[in-house]
User: Fold these one by one.
Assistant:
Number 1:
Amino acid sequence: MSNATATVAPPVVRAAGWSKTFSGRKVLTAVDLDIRPGEVHGLVGQNGSGKSTFIKILSGYHAPDRGARLAVNGSEIDLPLRPGAADRLGLSFVHQDLGLIDTGTVLENMRLGLYETRPGWRIAWGEERRRARAALERFGVDVDPDAKVEDLRDVDRAIVAIARALDRLEGLDGGALILDEPTAFLPRDGIETLFAAVRDVAAAGFGVLFVTHRLDEIAALADRVSVLRDGALVATLDTSTTSEDRLIETILGFSLDELYPTPHRAEDAVAMSVRDLAGRQVDGLGFDVHRGEILGLTGLQGMGYEEVPYLLFGATPAAAGAVAVGERTASAPSLSPPRALELGLALLPANRQRLGVIGPASVRENVTIPTLGGFFHGGLLDRNRERAAVERMLADFDVRPPEPARPIATLSGGNQQKALLGKWFATDPAVLMLHEPTQGVDVGARRQIFEQIRDAADRGTAFLMASTEYDDLAHLCDRVLVFRDGRVVAELHGAELTQERIVERCFRGARVGEPHTPDGEDA
Amino acid sequence: MEARGFGTSLSEFASRFGLLFAFAAIVVVFGALRPETFLTTTNFQTILGSQSVLVIVTLGLIVALTAGEIDLSIAGVLTLCVVLVAKLNVVAGLPIGIAIGAALAAGLLVGATNAFFVVAIGIESIVVTLGMGTFLVGLSFAIEESQLGGISETLVNATREQLLGVQLGFYYGLLLTVIVWYVFAYTPLGRYLYFVGAGRDVARLSGIRVQAIRAGALIASSGFAAVGGVVLAGLLGATDPNVGQSFLLPAFAAAFLGATAITPGRFNPWGTFIAVYFLVTGITGLQLLGLSGWVEQVFYGVSLILAVTLSRLAGRRRGDLQTQLGRLSQ
């Protein structure tokens, strides 16, 4: 495939015809993508558009479907990549979690697995330290090689990860640095240092593939940007000539032209009000949720919306804030799950396997645990009454099979979720908080879960629904708060509340038509 | 505990009562091989009477294990309490009631100390209780190195008197088994203990006070060991700081073997009770066949490994103990 007419240097990475099928479902379709030496190449797309599949093929984790080809620095490479091959070819990865060992020092992390040894396999620490310091100084950061990684600022941690990745390209003619959402969990301040580091890498002649959800970062950093939608590469654009609106339209696949008028929502009694809530990501958050209201919380992953239910339930400690449910108030840092339950809150967590069910325990044991005290009379647990209550609940929520004694792990995900919904409804909460309530749930159960939520809302239960299922949110919620960097950047309701609008607000904080400056939001 | 009902299937039935069948089988085998010594009333009286301390200690252990904590200090607590009862009663001349009270208080104090390090500080229970157990045995030697005799007849009689031909100690073990069964099966506390052990985060997010339950389980386990120590002091009528350590491994063997029966996959009091007597019957039978001293340790050691293997294999199907073992081995 070498092209004799090429006059410029060949791309660092040339992917051609990459497809990937998982159990009959095509998640990547004939993707062609070039990373040129010296460029920062952005890769964007919605969740599930195929970005991570592409990266995982490039790192050798997934094998592509037949017909995929890869050339690195102009020479053809056999796919799938063998373990370790990406390293030798000069493809170096920094993943979202950075892959650092927090309790180790910067130096240990930098040179992990690459120690220079002297006779007797002695590690030459002096030499190692000098190299590490030089590598970090190249990015203009003053980090002590002997400092523990956990003590570093988030931005410096990311730079250590990038410096380490670059170190692995040392001595190679050319190579590519693949940054897979390294900024997802970074605070905005200091991010410019990181960008400068990435620009330096590109200026040195390496290719950089930069995966992100944030279009402001694309504008600030990338030379070209490739957009994936439903597994296909829909466009590769020059960022200098592409407006953000154009980019959003390319990501979505349709245009956003009309803004609907906003019908006013009838106010009810407030079920819960939250003031000045602060956690790891959210800060100064305040909102009310009304009786019978379904309030959606969303954003891109890592933007803080997903933290809110856990803070309010006392599952993760809040730094500050106050919560009022009905007449009762509590300071957010003092909340614990038992206290939150007393207030009238309940939480259905997203991670069903780890936080939701005890698989080998029976359905009955799983669903009555918060209400067990109610079955304890005269010194005995009334197991007949407990069983009868569970049978009734299983019938109400159409859990199949309706057998209380069955280990809950033997139920399908959807049926487990319906049973857990029943578990929390049994506590008669004023506010039921749901995190990704339809994750791993089949379509039929999904509808039933929505119906149960709607019905309960009609009876006055308030809901907080933290989710990235924008379509669900648009159809189910009365109102949606969109989060970005721990703050609410948009509140959507009425006719404005559409999937497209939510996506748009997730990718871009400012309203369409308003002047938008990427850095202005933090001010 | 989940009462799944009898005979939902043959395999269910077999796994619930398999240990009892095995028990019956070894009685038949040893009875056939040594009818004149094994199949005697005296032999069974001895077997029943001799294991009350192990039953009590193991019951405490399954409380801790159910809550997901390993308690290796139970043998140390047992030793300390035997020595304290004798020292205070025989040497210091205090009334036996006060000596017993002091021993029990010491046991609870040990449990509270374990709980402090494990729950409040966050150290693995296996580490804390390993250190604590060794510390307590050393402390016991420091308190009284020699083998003191002459413990109050009141305590001796209260454990050695016979009812229906069996020492009273046996009935204490039986009574505590009933109490633990009641707590496990008929109180919310039992369910909470299980949830905390099987899925700490699930329990926490369901509003269970996980830290309190874990601390309570460690205190209960030391408390049971202290009661075992008092009963042992009565049965021996004397003290010996070497006596406690021999209870540690059998307690673990019985706890894990017991978890393969009655409510398979979960630590449970009746399974524990049966397992203790199953194990000692096997050992007695082998000793009667002429296998001397070493057989006890060999038998208990092999039984522990086999018991855990069996519950692991049962757990493959059921997934239950696997969760708990997974948690314990973290």
Number 2:
Amino acid sequence: MIDPLRKQERAQAINILYGFRFQLFAIVAIIGIFIFLDPRMASADIEQSFHSYSINTGGTPISAVQTLGTGLTGTTSQVNLWGTGNYILQWFDEYSDSTYQTHVSSSAQQGGYIGSYSNQLIPIAITSYTFDPTKYYVLRFTIWDLANSDTRGYGTSSDIYTGGTANPSPCPAGLSGYCTARAVEDWYFNIVGATGGPIADGVISLTGPTGTVASSTVPVHFTGTYNNGNSETYDSIAFSLFNSTYNQQLSTMYGQGYATTTGNGIDFDVPLVIPLQGNYEYSAYLINTTTTGNDTRLTDTATSSFSYGSNATSTDPIYSAPEIVCSFGDLFCYMKKAFVWLLYPTDSVKNSFDLLKLTIVTKPPVGYFYILKDNLTGLTATSSAQVAVVIPTNLKTVIFDPLDVALTSILWALFGFIFYKRVSKIHL
Amino acid sequence: MIWSWIITLIVSILSYLIGLLPTVSNTSGFGSAFAVAGHYMAVPYQFIPYITITIIAIVAFDVAFESGYLFFKIIYWIIKRFPTQS
């Protein structure tokens, strides 16, 4: 028998909750839209091999060619490359009729000095270009070293932000030397976190470390096994540290380590100087720094273990269970550990969600939204004009510029007035 | 682990079902249309950049606002169908 007073209170509580139904749904809808618009979800589907060129010949430009193939869709306006050196020039080409066609898109800095880089991710803006899925594309980039120092340029085609799935086969006859991987390839790690499970594809995640420790050196140890069937020397491992709040384009490489041995079970002692603030993701690439023998390949998967040094303030990967230390005989604590183990979702679950998200954005009806979004993102008024209008500088300064500002102000004022009238007539 | 198993099961089922759908791809005509629109937009942008951007911003905001309002109305209509206790 329920007390009538309690029944009335329960009804009141339900009614209060019911009164907030619009707000609750609005919050859910807003969060949903933001998740929906996560730029990382719209990023690349192109997953081809990793190409690189490593030179040590000062003053000599070296061109590297990466075949992308047919099937590319969407609009791209930026390419990310990892690089060390002074000049990096690059462009997309369409390849047909056994020859390179006119550059369909070029870096804005083509032919110019774009800075000196030391193993950094270099986001290179290119003229906006919409791919035609029927055409065969190649990405060519030239690296230039004026200082006679080790100069490299390398990148993954997955850094090209667009849609579609590139298919480099069949390889055109004239590009047969480029359709197979060369120099340096992506080395896929299966990294085991300090307390978490294996994470695929060379990226590991961690919560924190938090707080700023600008000058701290965090020793990182990698132990890995790999297949070096061709007996090449793999002597460098590069780390990049991603602030997980932002997307990949804003990341910076923070450290690089060298192994002194070859074969199975390399130990990398990587001194990292990390400004520890916020949440980060690490990624790791193995790089061959040998300046000769550019055919060296790293083709096999590897299993590596990852551990942090004592200076790191946190070692808990995201989505792994919190560490609970129980004193002997504390049954309640044991129960708590059991429940945490039982109920806490693992990293692999989070990864499976990420994979599902990537699948959803390529399928109808969500895929159509992303196609529209990608195209709208590529829509820019600063692209090459259909008709070139040349206005004398004086005329522009005296008439068009003030007129532009004045009419814009009127437009905004009109917009404010009309929008206010519209909002005032909305009945929620 | 239970939670992980349940989520994994749900994700697996969803992945399988979603995987059955065809992959959408951009058509060259659709992409070209936006590229051409950009070229045309660039014409007034050369001499009246502020007005050009303002018009685009206002139109985009209006579309987003009205879409959001419509979405809200749809959600509201669905909520009204829920049985309530009074």
